[in-house]
UniProtKB/TrEMBL annotation:
The keyword Iron does not apply. In plastids the F-type ATPase is also known as CF(1)CF(0). Belongs to the ATPase B chain family. One of its GO terms (cellular component) is proton-transporting ATP synthase complex. The chain crosses the membrane at residues 32-49. F-type ATPases have 2 components, F(1) - the catalytic core - and F(0) - the membrane proton channel. F(1) has five subunits: alpha(3), beta(3), gamma(1), delta(1), epsilon(1). F(0) has four main subunits: a(1), b(1), b'(1) and c(10-14). The alpha and beta chains form an alternating ring which encloses part of the gamma chain. F(1) is attached to F(0) by a central stalk formed by the gamma and epsilon chains, while a peripheral stalk is formed by the delta, b and b' chains. The lineage of its organism: Eukaryota, Viridiplantae, Streptophyta, Embryophyta, Tracheophyta. Its main location: membrane. It is a single-pass membrane protein. Keywords: ATP synthesis, CF(0), Chloroplast, Coiled coil, Hydrogen ion transport, Ion transport, Membrane, Plastid, Thylakoid, Transmembrane, Transmembrane helix, Transport. F(1)F(0) ATP synthase produces ATP from ADP in the presence of a proton or sodium gradient. F-type ATPases consist of two structural domains, F(1) containing the extramembraneous catalytic core and F(0) containing the membrane proton channel, linked together by a central stalk and a peripheral stalk. During catalysis, ATP synthesis in the catalytic domain of F(1) is coupled via a rotary mechanism of the central stalk subunits to proton translocation. This is ATP synthase subunit b, chloroplastic. Residues 64-98 form a coiled coil.
Length: 184
């Protein structure tokens, strides 16, 4: 610390301007050099520094304005997107409800169509059964008729002699002849 105070004291004892030399005392020369450099920088650099700070301030303000505009645009886009989302959600709900009602309607139509088909199949089954019963009845009738006819012919053939047979044939021929005259 003594060196620092000695250097300031020695400032008062500098020799006159006739001599020139280097001061090798670093502690004595650094504060003087620093104060001179700082004084020059402040005097000449104040305008440049002000200009740099003003430019920086303008760029920051411009960036803030742009950010605000972008924020407003983003908010508007967000609101439009939310409105579009609400609209799409309402349409989806509407489609969902219409879809459910359409499904229910199709289900009812399918049930009705299936019921109608079953009813038709039941009717076809009943008609087929009735037809088959009638056919079976007719076959039985034909068989009974044929058996009765064969039995009658057998009885007639065993009971009739040739003359009775001849008279029956002539009578039937006469009946057929009379039927021909009526139809003509």
């Amino acid at each position: 610390m003594k060196n620092v105070t000695d250097s300031f004291v020695s400032l008062g004892r500098w020799p006159s301007a006739g001599s020139f030399g280097f001061n090798t005392d670093i502690l004595a020369t650094n504060p003087i050099n620093l104060s001179v450099v700082l004084g020059v920088l402040i005097f000449f650099g104040k305008g440049v520094l002000n200009d740099l700070l003003d430019n920086r301030k303008q760029r920051i303000l411009s960036t803030i304005r742009n950010s605000e505009e972008l924020r407003r645009g983003a908010i508007e886009q967000l609101e439009r997107a939310r409105a579009r989302l609400r609209k799409v959600e309402m349409e989806a709900d509407e489609y969902r409800m219409n879809g459910y009602s359409e499904i229910e309607r199709e289900k009812a139509n399918l049930i009705n169509a299936t019921s109608d088909n079953l009813e038709q199949l039941e009717n076809y089954k009943n008609e087929t059964l009735h037809f088959e019963q009638q056919r079976a009845i007719n076959q039985v009738r034909q068989q009974v008729f044929q058996q009765a006819l064969q039995g009658a012919l057998g009885t007639l053939n065993s009971c009739l002699n040739s003359e009775l047979h001849f008279r029956t044939i002539n009578a039937n021929i006469g009946i057929l002849g009379a039927m021909e005259e009526i139809t003509d």
